[in-house]
Design goal:
Elements: E1 2-9, E2 12-18, E3 22-24, E4 31-33, H1 47-57, H2 62-69, H3 73-91, E5 98-107, E6 111-118, E7 123-128, H4 134-144, H5 146-149, E8 154-157, H6 161-170, E9 175-178, H7 180-201, H8 214-218, H9 226-238, H10 240-252, H11 261-273, H12 281-287, H13 302-307, H14 310-314
Parallel strand pairs: 5-8, 8-9
Antiparallel strand pairs: 1-2, 3-4, 5-6, 6-7
Helix pairs in contact: 1-3, 2-3, 4-6, 7-10, 7-12, 9-10
């Protein structure tokens, strides 16, 4: 006989007393226990109780749900995992037309998992892999299948080469687009490299405008305080090369305002030409790989894809408070 917990009736907990038969298998000689379809993976709880716990975990932390039902934390976590697995099974693997690819850190020590999002429905559809390698990215396309992978028209990602290579191998028809967030982050690093080079080149009193102004230079102008805006104005007026690099970085953001690929490419090429005589190697080297990510296909324009960043959807996936 086994006591199995079921859904409560009001404030009264309900337990079922179930007779579970044990059979001596003549084939393998082992003792087998009868499997009851209405029981969860944890045989001391019914499936409907596990689903109820899982639905509660969508709104509350695991610790609060464990306290509410007077269960162990590990038990609630296991029931929640079974509930989520059942939801994924019922939903099935979607067939996205536009996907966003990003990685998320799950613990210290550069331990990553890959998150793939449906940009049209604006929701994550796959979370997995062992790291952020090409092999891990290929696991998504294998799970998606050849037919559905062939239906992908746009893949939005950062400038990480393994993501691009895996997409080109499994979905060669998809246009690859680099998202605005990561490209502007690369330009921010290039601008900081110019700042360091200028600080090393100058000496004496000329350094006082650059020293301690890293975050003033890299922050959005509208986020700066009055003192910060004054310091930025003074810095740009004192150093012509930093002023040029800053203006080039800020104007590059206009790329995502274009709705036609041809105009976007024309702007990009003109922007690159403006670097030719400026002696700003960090900016040129950082932006060179970005041209591969300007292509669009089948009416999907640059503005629509750039406006919905996979990074925004990825940041909605966070570890539930425990």
């Amino acid at each position: 006989m086994r006591r199995v917990r079921d859904l409560s009736c009001g404030d009264t907990r309900v337990w079922l007393v179930v007779e579970v038969r044990r059979i001596n298998c003549r084939t393998c000689g082992k003792v087998k226990t009868e499997r009851l379809d209405f029981l969860a993976d944890n045989p001391f709880y019914t499936k409907r109780f596990a689903w109820h716990v899982g639905r509660r975990c969508r709104q509350s932390s695991v610790r609060d749900v464990a306290r509410e039902f007077r269960l162990d934390w590990q038990t609630v976590k296991a029931l929640d995992k079974q509930y989520m697995a059942e939801q994924l099974k019922r939903a099935g693997m979607p067939g996205p037309k536009a996907i966003g690819i990003d990685e998320i850190s799950i613990r210290k020590g550069h331990t990553y998992r890959i998150v793939v999002s449906d940009l049209i429905r604006k929701r994550p559809i796959w979370f997995g892999g062992n790291d952020r390698s090409e092999a891990s990215m290929a696991m998504f396309y294998e799970a998606l299948g050849t037919r559905k992978s062939g239906g992908i028209r746009l893949a939005l990602m950062d400038m990480w080469k393994p993501f691009r290579k895996a997409t080109q191998a499994h979905a060669p028809q998809a246009a690859i687009l680099f998202d605005k967030f990561h490209i502007m982050a690369h330009l921010g690093k290039a601008l900081d490299a110019v700042r360091k080079a200028e600080y090393a080149r100058l000496s004496g009193k000329d350094r006082r405008f650059i020293k301690g102004q890293k975050y003033t230079l890299l922050s959005h102008r509208e986020n700066l305080s009055l003192d910060g805006k004054a310091a930025l104005k003074q810095l740009l007026a004192a150093n012509k090369r930093l002023n040029t690099a800053y203006l080039l970085k800020e104007t590059f953001g206009q790329l995502w305002d274009y709705r036609r690929e041809a105009w976007a490419r024309r702007f990009f090429d003109q922007w690159r030409k403006s670097l030719r005589w400026q002696r700003l190697k960090p900016l040129a080297s950082r932006i060179r790989p970005a041209r591969r990510g300007l292509s669009t296909s089948e009416g999907t324009h640059l503005h629509a894809a750039g406006a919905v960043k996979s990074d925004e959807i990825t940041h909605t996936i966070s570890r539930r408070p425990i």
